Amino acid sequence: MGMTISQKIIADKSGKASVKPGEIVLADIDLAFANDITAPISIDFVKKLDADVFDKSKIALIPDHFTPNKDINSANQCKIMRDFVKSSDLPNYWETGEVGIEHALLPEQGYIKPGMLIVGADSHTCTHGALGAFSTGMGSTDVGFAFATGKSWLRVPEAIKFVYKGKRNKWVGGKDLILYTIGKIGVAGALYKSMEFSGDTIRELPMEDRLTMCNMAVEAGAKNGIIEPDDVTSVYLEERGVTKKDYTVYKSDEDAVYSNVEDIDAANIEPQIAMPHLPENVCGISDIKDDIKIDQAFIGSCTNGRISDLREAAKVLKNNKAAKYVRLIIIPATVDIYKQALKEGLFDIFLEAGAVISTPTCGPCLGGYMGILADDEVAISTSNRNFVGRMGSKKSFIYLSSPAVAAASAVAGKIISPDEVIK
Amino acid sequence: MKFKGKGWVYGDNVDTDVIIPARYLNTSDEKELAKHCMEDIDENFIKKIKKGDIIVAKDNFGSGSSREHAPIAIKASGISCVIAKSFARIFYRNSFNMGLPIFESAEAADGIKDGDEIEVDADSGEIRNLTAGEVYIATPIPDFMQALIESGGLFGYAKKILNK
């Protein structure tokens, strides 16, 4: 019986010729990481074991959620992390001023390579499957276990194969493809499974859009999202000094068994919106008939805070202004993205549009800080979750979209297609 | 081991943001987290529950964020165990790692009404609804998870691997 790309990586990393779905294996880890919220518990686990980290080069600690620190408690959490980095002399740590959102920073800096097995104490660790790695989110203790032993137990997942065909429409990117897919299968539609994204549309899709797609696999309950490496992957890696001899490319066997194959006609997909309070409550932008007035538009997060996202937003915001009383918050996901956006003049466009631009942080995506919603307020956000209370008050409402739709909505003061702003 | 208490019933997709909102994630202190457990889905939760009570939910309980603070908050609140039709993947692992007992049972999730007296026999997987006079059976825990619990959880397992 053939194996999927995810199963093949797990088999190799656990020293087995083959694995079957449902089997539990102990696999070797190529990279384990945690952030300022999750790391303190992982560190505590390692300390209680009286152990050292298994391999300094294979661990990363990334203070991105509540940094620059928003209050005394979060400053103390970061201090636990920083003290551990100092005492263990860990190389892969980024201080405020260097740090970015973990799932944007790690691929950008060339830490993610095809064929790796990655665990992270953050649910959006599934992002890194875009480069053909097996990458999955876990809790702090599981990641603490990986820090100390270099291993993690894994239940070998079944997989759903998604085959996207056709040319994408104007303003349709990775965010729209994944929202459409979650709308189709539901928030538990891929529970415990791999989501394998394939087809002509994916082959034409830029890496940043692929990262966005894999990022939201967890929103369908998946263990990982993954895309087979191709020329787009190798070019992205070469730009980061990673050459083909540095990694192993895995591909699904011709006779790999899938629990389901979903064919999706990408040519029929328009910009998508996920309505409150679940990422599966998806509709096309043309289905929004009533005026949905917004109080805030947020462009950023590990889902859509990359340079291509900011360029897309700038295209819509150029020579436009956010509507009266709408707070437009733009957060480049990493320092390099911040610098690039500045260099390209995107900040001028954003500032002219009345946006506020923050240093890299997860901030408002999870209702941390830098844009909390009040009772009864409505936001459009390029992030990944629109759960009750996710961005602030439990009486607030979050709509998820692409950067183009969020930017257009900021200008109109209501949820609207970018085509209505750029005529 | 047996658990006994009132069952408090919730729906599908109870996510970790409502179990413990991110505004409280600037600490890992279990007592502090417990104060805000389930706050955004049921603001009276902490007031109404008694030690030993049980959370009952439908599909995909614990979806969303990987925060271990969610099972920590539930356990520290005094809840003895969670029964659901299904659990989100990361929450499932985290519960074992945090020592929060969880039971998968669709019939229990459908049969239990808010406030029913429930008794759970963790060894046999039998869930008794004392109010309705019904008995449900939970899906057995996978052998590996059982062995993991018996070897002292992930901590014991790590010690074994490291020969400590």
Task: Reconstruct the topology from this structure.
The complex is a heterodimer of chains A (423) and B (164).
Chain A: H1 5-13, E1 24-28, E2 31-35, H2 39-48, E3 59-62, H3 72-88, H4 102-108, E4 117-121, E5 134-137, H5 140-149, E6 151-155, E7 159-165, H6 174-185, E8 194-198, H7 200-203, H8 207-215, E9 224-226, H9 231-238, E10 260-265, E11 272-274, E12 282-284, E13 296-299, H10 301-304, H11 307-317, E14 327-330, H12 335-343, H13 346-352, E15 355-357, E16 378-381, E17 397-400, H14 403-412, H15 418-421
Parallel strand pairs in A: 2-3, 2-4, 4-5, 7-8, 7-10, 8-9, 13-14, 13-16, 14-15, 16-17
Antiparallel strand pairs in A: 1-6, 11-12
Chain B: E1 2-9, H1 16-19, H2 30-35, H3 45-48, E2 54-57, H4 69-77, E3 81-84, H5 89-98, E4 102-104, H6 106-111, E5 117-121, E6 126-129, E7 134-137, H7 143-150, H8 153-162
Parallel strand pairs in B: 1-2, 2-3, 3-4
Antiparallel strand pairs in B: 1-5, 5-6, 6-7
Helix pairs in contact in B: 4-5, 7-8
In brief:
The complex is a heterodimer of chains A (423) and B (164). Chain A is an alpha/beta fold.
Helix content of chain A: 25-40%
Strand content of chain A: 15-25%
* Strand-pairing-aware structural class of chain B: alpha/beta
- Unreliable spans of chain A are none
Counted beta strands of chain A: 17
Q: What's the CATH H-level homologous superfamily of the largest domain in chain A? A: Aconitase, domain 3
Descriptive report:
The complex is a heterodimer of chains A (423) and B (164). With 423 residues, chain A is α/β, with parallel strands linked by helices. Chain A has 2 domains: 261 residues, Aconitase, domain 3 (2-Layer Sandwich); 148 residues, Aconitase, domain 3, CATH 3.30.499. Helices cover 31% and strands 17% of the residues of chain A. Chain A has 15 helices and 17 strands. In chain A, the strands form 5 sheets. Chain A has a 5-stranded parallel sheet with strand order 15-14-13-16-17. In chain A, helix 2 packs across helix 5, helix 6 runs parallel beside helix 8 and helix 11 packs parallel to helix 14. The longest helix of chain A is centred in the N-terminal third of the chain and has 17 residues. The radius of gyration of chain A is 21 Å and the shape is globular. The N and C termini of chain A lie far apart (53 Å). The model of chain A has no long low-confidence stretch (mean pLDDT 98). By secondary structure, chain B is an alpha/beta fold. Chain B has a single domain, classed as Aconitase, domain 4. Helices cover 35% and strands 20% of the residues of chain B. A 7-stranded mixed sheet of chain B has the order 4-3-2-1-5-6-7. The longest helix of chain B is centred in the middle third of the chain and has 10 residues. Chains A and B meet through helix 2, helix 3, helix 5 and strand 6 of A and helix 5 and helix 8 of B.
